[in-house]
Structures are given as C-alpha cells and as structure tokens.
Amino acid sequence: MDHGGRRCPLDVLAVRDVVSMPFDPPDQHPRHAIVIASGGLDSTVLAYWLAALGTKLTLLSFDYGQRHRVELEHAAEIARLLDCPHEIVDLAVLGQLLAGSALTDGDVPVPDGHYTDASMRATIVPNRNAIMLDIAVALAVVRKADVVAFGAHAGDHAVYPDCRPEFVKQYSRSARIANDGLLDDSFEILAPFITQSKTDIVRLGAAFGVPFEKTWSCYRGGATHCGTCGTCTERREAFQRNGISDPTNYGSA
Known about the structure:
The chain is α/β, with parallel strands linked by helices.
C-alpha cells in the first residue's frame, strides 16, 4: 500500500483481526504526525502503524549525548524506508549537564536485567521525554502537524515517570496552553502504546512487516546488541513470547 510515497506493506484494516490495535482506525486518524523516533522497536512500529493509517510522517530524533548514539543511524534508515523527512536535533550538551545517568555518563555502568529491577533507575535521564516533546510540539506548530507521537509503553511505567499515562495527560494540557491559537484544533499528544507491552508491540510490528533487523535497542551502543542490558532483555523476551524469529545479532547469544 502506498500512502503518498510512504511504503507500508499492509492496510491497517487488514490486520485488525490479527492484533489488538491501540485505537480504532480509520474514523479519526492523524493527518500529519511528528514522531519522536529513536530507531528502536517502539517508535519504529509506531511510525509504520501511522503510515498504514495514511498519516504523513516526520521523524524527529535527538542526539542528547547518549552512549548508544548508533540508534540515530537506525532512525535515519527507517525514515529512508518510509520515505519521509527525518530531523536530528543536537542536544549533546545534555549529556554533560545531566550527568549521573547510565545513558549519558560514561562513568555510570549500564545495568543488566529487567526494567522492574531497582538498578534500572540508573538509566533515567531527568525530564528527557518532556524536553523532546517540547521540541516536537514546536515543530508541529511550524509544520502544521496535528499530532506528536511517541512510543512510551506499559513496560516503561515502573522506571520512567515521563512514560506514564498521567504524564501524557498533563503534558498534553500544558502543550495546548503554551501554544494556544497556534496548534491545530484537533492537536493531540499520541502515545497509543501506553497500555501495551513490548510483546504487544512486536506482535503489531510483525503484522505490518516492520524491518526489526533495522532497529536498535541496546543501551551499551556497541557494534552489536549486548543481549543483557534492560532493553536487550525486554527485546529478546518480546520475540520469544510471540514465537517470532528474532533477527537481532546479540553479542551474548
């Protein structure tokens, strides 16, 4: 199916009976979405799903000094495959200002294990999503987009305060107030996976033919996925629980 040059293998209606959809298409679907794209599973599945709805896409990525900066190359490849614009915002100074996170501070080791482990708190970058969303909303004003979308999911809730439903609700209200008269009347912050698990997201992505091998999850940012950090652990389990072949090359197989 071709949506204005964006290649997507399946119509959203064709997979509604195969997987649980975040909300019912196509009655109200976004016209133009600014998608915060990390190059990972969640944001890539989100982008493919929106493309299947016929939504015009702009992918927005951030260099915030993360040690796994390789993810930006993967986001660029996803934008190329979807034939949509891709912007990268240079916020590398955040890595210096927000020391103490395993994602931005080389002196803090990346913990292994599940998101629910207390040690995963070391991966919090304070206010990261709010900072990214602020820039995405501003871009939505400039490019007249009616949606800003990001891939927060239920597995994030235990660790990341800015991935919880209450945050999305309150931030959406703040964004509309801060840009009163500038945003589209139907503008919304869209986090359709907020109640979905990583397993759900992989299942949805498989139905849409998402090129999982082109995505990046590992927090360590080496030549291959480490296979043991929090995001690698969750990634591996999501494929296993779905019985879907995992194309990821893990360093610790």
